[in-house]
Amino acid sequence: MSFFSKKPLLSAEVQNQVVERIKAAELKTTAEVRVYVEAHCEYMDPLDRAKEVFVSLAMDKTEKRNAVIIYMALKDHQFALFGDAAIYELAGGPLFWESAAEHLVTHLKQGKIGEGLCACIDELSNAMAKHFPYDPTITKNELPDEIVFGK
């Protein structure tokens, strides 16, 4: 046993569940969704951190400006949802984002991180599919589907 081994922030089962949900969501839309997880938020406001991560992952460079990130700082019990300009406005502004966040919060309060992430992805993907439906002429996946882990 190593004293330096760290328990992963999300189990392999949860990671697989979330990645599969991202892939399924992106089959219905030209939009992109990513999940970023780290232990602690470096800022007081997790939305500021989500914006920073969004840019660092080049999510602001998608062709249709319709990417969304779900940011989580697990040990600090913080999260934020951030969408690029086009999806933010078309999805319905603050009320929509609050509703999507509630889907996540409901599950997090029960300790069901994987289910919460999947419910949030489903809520986001419904709006993405409505406003940015699948287009067979666009066959590329602009951003990787894996969960990104920070510090």
Q: Key features?
A:
151 residues; alpha/beta; 15% strand
What's the end-to-end separation, in Å? Answer: 22 Å
Strand content: 5-15%
Helix content: 40-55%
In CATH, the architecture is: Roll
The number of distinct helices, counting runs of at least 4 residues, comes to: 5
SSE ordering: HEHEEHHHE
Instruction: Give the strand order of the largest sheet, numbering strands 1, 2, ... along the chain.
Output: 3-2-1-4
Work out the count of structural domains: 1
Write the layout of secondary structure elements.
Layout: H1 12-26, E1 32-38, H2 46-56, E2 67-73, E3 78-83, H3 85-91, H4 94-108, H5 113-131, E4 148-149
Helix pairs in contact: 1-5, 4-5
Can you offer a commentary on this structure?
This protein has five helices and four strands. With about 150 residues, the protein is an alpha/beta fold. The chain has one domain: Diaminopimelate Epimerase, Chain A, domain 1, CATH 3.10.310. The protein has a four-stranded mixed beta sheet, sandwiched between helices. The longest helix has 19 residues. The protein is globular and about 45 Å long.
